[in-house]
Amino acid sequence: MPTDAIAFLDVEASSLSHGFPLEVAWCSADLLHGASYLVRPAPGWLDRFAWTREAEALHGLTRERVAAEGLPADEVADRLAADLAGRIVRSDNPSFDGGWLRLLRDPPPVALDHATAPGGPALGAKSDLTPHRALDDAVLLAMAFASFGDGAAPLPPEEALTRGHALVARCGRR
Question: Beta strands 6-13 and 88-91: pairing type?
């Protein structure tokens, strides 16, 4: 299977317990394509769901920022569906990420398979990626897959790091 047919997705949320999605990002397994979307809280989300200081401290996204810069949930769902059409989409935690995607739209815009990140901690230690930001976490999963996973032509870890950093920069996260 070509590595561009696989993508890795991550979601950051307002709380790990009964939160809502704030940021959704994906990265192709070849580390050449991806996107990151901030999600503007839908009407009623702030009343129905939790927003915790602990989650905010992890990802650094504030209510003010997602309200000002985020896209409406249905627009994020539409973009994800278009971006990821025809791809196998993997997540390191599909039950959590899938639940947050269902808040964007039910049924969710994409189905998720489970991904493990062999070698991910070692690559993460070598990178300057920001943990708990959706694109950076998706890129780290893709880097681990590209270097150590079941891809047909593994990338050397240094090339995976270079591609991952370039993708994050292109998507405006740096």
Answer: parallel
- The domain spans of the chain are 3-170
**90 sits in which H/E element:** strand 88-91
CATH number of 3-170: 3.30.420.10
Residue-wise pLDDT tens digits, 59-83: 999 999 999 999 999 999 999 999 9
Q: What is the DSSP letter of 154?
A: P
Residue type, 132: H
DSSP assignment of 1-63? --GGGEEEEEEEES-TTT--EEEEEEEETTSS-EEEEEBPPPTTHHHHS---HHHHHHH---H
